[in-house]
Inverse folding.
């Protein structure tokens, strides 16, 4: 529990909490982006360079942009969110506490956390590439197929309107 | 060839860039206000009143006929005729304008006042440095400000001024000849001597009696 | 002696660190590494604004600014004074926090990108193992700040400009990354320092730069086109030159915030040029083997200034692209060429070295380029003109 971890954890939690609590939709997305950046910093602090930098590139650079585009397209100028505290906040707090207790007990009592942590292996990008291409090549190809399907679907959706207009 | 258009464009701009250091034709800017581009002869900005000779009040050609005031489309000229008369270029006694104001914020430089003036008294100036920080008084030109000499007129519009001078000299010569003929007739006929003022040509006319002979 | 000149900044830093107690040494080492970058690149920004105005002026048959000092050299100082003393106008309905943060985020992200550029031998701020990835990750933060600027101004024009700008930047980010993947494939590492070290050798007098290979040349051209589009420079400056007086997403900014946007944009341009130099043009290595006595950072900045002059030249030459032309170029030409370039790099890697390798790779690269460019040209069908009244 080093100081850096605490600072980054506070930043992440604050960002995501603000994302839930803010009135303006755009402010929510920007706070969520701060949360993403906090998670990326946590990855970097753990030494996973590739994952951390990819987190920034994908989440901050693409997912956040996607979210803001969605807000821009469905522009609603008036902040319609009421206060973040709903009427039945008691029930919500109880459910959250129960889930937290169950998760904490599960993690505590699992065998992985009981043993002392082995020294972390230095995974380089080359190792990740090797694993993707050799051990997990099937998964990689399926993901590629899924992404291609999504791309074609997006193009079809976007093109449909133009054909109707013709 | 692929990319032909872009390469041609790039060579043209490169030629412009290097040519601007070498020759004048690829760098046509002048460093205003230290250097100025010469204006063409037909340039015009706002009217001015021409005077012959040294005295701007005595030599002013304007006789206050108010034709330009009536013809001016935006009505920017204001004239008050004088009560007394003074001799003009040919010696005839003429009125003169006691007040002659042009509001150059209204004037549209249409040159109609120049075209209708029978006395070649009002001509177009080329001076454009007329800005002032007083919108009303600074842009209302009075007679003194508007009066500029015939020599100045010759410098800004040489051919036009030359033609005007020729015409005026011709008129003066004709008037002189008529006066002389009248004086001779008078002298030949028995009778009182003629009025002294007709015989003498105007004191301010430049001596150009032989130049303006009709071709 | 030559070695000392080359390493003068490194030696100076070590000498200065000697005065600092051992506890504070990592922090002071970081600060001392960062300070030259913070000084050099804004200075280069000022010089570039002067160079651009004079260069564009001469291309357009006029002098540039020549009143502010000898040859207008104090013009950047005059611009700085103007932008500092201008009134900071914020629209009444603007989102104040976001409006304030947008230029800050842009400038910070632009500065962060210099952390992985090797400016000279042993002169990189931090030698990350995934340096190239870090660079592109930081570059994608810029788009977010563009959105923030456009949205917070609460103006139709700025929102429209921001949407177009983000669409353009996202579309050109993919070819940018793909064009650099080729270099990573050949160099075998994501670290910028090792990429430059791979290009620092010489055969005879010719250097081993990646730009002198078929895949490197194609990759360099694609990278530069994508870099021009990423920094919103002419001919891709539709988001900011829209109608010329309506400045896109910068509309509601004045004074120093506008200057920060300008700074961020130019710094982004320098950073992508620096990355292009690192990936393709050999970083700090000299072009000919007998010129290695000139210090390495001089070579880096010479190449950077050359690329900047290239940017200015292109800006003065080409007209602006329309939005649909821009997007078509990105998705229908640049992206397929980048993918084919990866294929070419693969062929290069597996063929034995020699003339045949050159010919095959050049053919495989050139054929789709020519086919695509002629295939994508829209054939104009001219209508037969009929007049109703005149004949």
């Amino acid at each position: 529990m080093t100081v850096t971890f605490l600072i980054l954890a506070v930043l992440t939690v604050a960002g995501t909490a603000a994302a839930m609590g803010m009135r303006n939709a755009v402010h929510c997305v920007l706070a969520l982006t701060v949360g993403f950046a906090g998670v990326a910093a946590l990855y970097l602090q753990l030494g996973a360079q590739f994952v951390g930098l990819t987190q920034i590139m994908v989440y901050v650079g693409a997912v956040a942009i996607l979210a803001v585009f969605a807000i821009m397209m469905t522009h609603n100028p008036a902040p319609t969110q009421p206060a973040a505290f709903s009427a039945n906040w008691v029930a919500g707090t109880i459910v959250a506490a129960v889930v937290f207790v169950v998760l904490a007990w599960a993690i505590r009592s699992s065998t992985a956390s009981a043993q002392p942590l082995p020294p972390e292996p230095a995974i380089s990008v080359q190792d990740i590439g090797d694993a993707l291409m050799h051990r997990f090549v099937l998964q990689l190809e399926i993901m590629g197929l899924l992404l291609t399907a999504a791309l074609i679907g997006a193009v079809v959706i976007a093109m449909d309107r133009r054909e109707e207009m013709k | 060839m692929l990319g032909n258009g872009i390469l041609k464009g790039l060579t043209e701009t490169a030629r412009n860039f290097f040519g601007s250091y070498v020759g004048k034709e690829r760098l046509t800017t002048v460093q205003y206000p230290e250097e100025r581009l010469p204006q063409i002869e037909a340039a015009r900005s706002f009217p001015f009143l021409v005077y012959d000779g040294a005295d701007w009040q005595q030599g002013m050609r304007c006789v206050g006929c108010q034709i330009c005031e009536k013809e001016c489309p935006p009505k920017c000229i204001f004239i008050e005729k004088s009560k007394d008369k003074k001799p003009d270029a040919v010696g005839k006694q003429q009125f003169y304008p006691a007040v002659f104001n042009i509001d150059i914020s209204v004037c549209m430089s249409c040159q109609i006042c120049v075209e209708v003036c029978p006395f070649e008294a009002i001509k177009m100036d080329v001076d454009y440095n007329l800005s002032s920080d007083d919108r009303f008084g600074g842009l209302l030109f009075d007679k003194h400000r508007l009066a500029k000499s015939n020599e100045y007129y010759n410098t800004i519009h040489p051919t036009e001024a030359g033609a005007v001078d020729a015409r005026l000299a011709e008129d003066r010569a004709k008037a002189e000849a008529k006066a002389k003929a009248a004086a001779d007739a008078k002298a030949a006929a028995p009778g009182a001597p003629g009025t002294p003022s007709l015989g003498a040509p105007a004191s301010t006319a430049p001596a150009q009696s032989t130049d303006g002979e009709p071709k | 002696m030559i070695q000392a000149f080359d390493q003068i900044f490194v030696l100076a830093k070590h000498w200065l660190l000697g005065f600092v107690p051992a506890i504070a040494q990592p922090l002071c080492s970081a600060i001392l590494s960062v300070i030259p970058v913070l000084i050099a690149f804004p200075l280069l920004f000022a010089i570039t604004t002067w160079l651009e105005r004079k260069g564009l002026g001469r291309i357009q048959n006029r002098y540039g600014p020549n009143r502010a000092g000898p040859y207008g050299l104090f013009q950047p100082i005059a611009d700085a004074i103007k932008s500092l003393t201008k009134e900071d106008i914020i629209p009444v309905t603007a989102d104040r926090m976001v409006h304030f943060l947008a230029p800050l985020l842009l400038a910070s992200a632009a500065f962060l990108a210099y952390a992985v550029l090797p400016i000279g031998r042993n002169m990189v701020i931090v030698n990350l193992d995934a340096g190239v990835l870090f660079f592109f990750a930081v570059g994608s933060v810029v788009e977010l700040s563009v959105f923030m600027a456009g949205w917070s101004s609460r103006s139709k024009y700025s929102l429209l400009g921001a949407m177009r700008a983000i669409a353009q930047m996202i579309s050109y980010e993919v070819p940018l990354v793909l064009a650099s993947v080729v270099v990573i494939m050949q160099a075998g590492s994501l670290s910028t320092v090792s990429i430059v070290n791979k290009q620092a050798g010489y055969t005879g007098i010719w250097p081993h730069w990646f730009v002198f290979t078929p895949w490197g040349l194609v990759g360099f051209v694609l990278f530069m086109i994508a870099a021009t589009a990423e920094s919103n420079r002419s001919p891709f400056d539709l988001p900011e030159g829209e109608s010329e007086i309506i400045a896109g997403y910068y509309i509601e900014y004045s004074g120093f915030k506008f200057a920060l946007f300008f700074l961020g944009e130019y710094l982004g341009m320098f950073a992508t040029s620096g990355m292009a130099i690192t990936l393709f043009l050999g970083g700090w290595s000299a072009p000919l083997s007998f010129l290695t006595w000139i210090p390495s950072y001089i070579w880096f900045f010479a190449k950077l200034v050359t690329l900047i002059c290239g940017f200015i030249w292109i800006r003065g030459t080409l007209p602006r692209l329309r939005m649909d032309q821009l997007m078509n170029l990105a998705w229908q030409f640049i992206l397929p060429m980048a993918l084919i370039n990866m294929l070419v790099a693969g062929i290069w890697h597996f063929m034995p070295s020699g003339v045949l390798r050159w010919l095959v790779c050049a053919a495989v690269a050139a054929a789709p380029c020519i086919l695509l460019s002629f295939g994508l040209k829209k054939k104009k069908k001219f209508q037969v003109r009929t007049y109703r009244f005149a004949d």
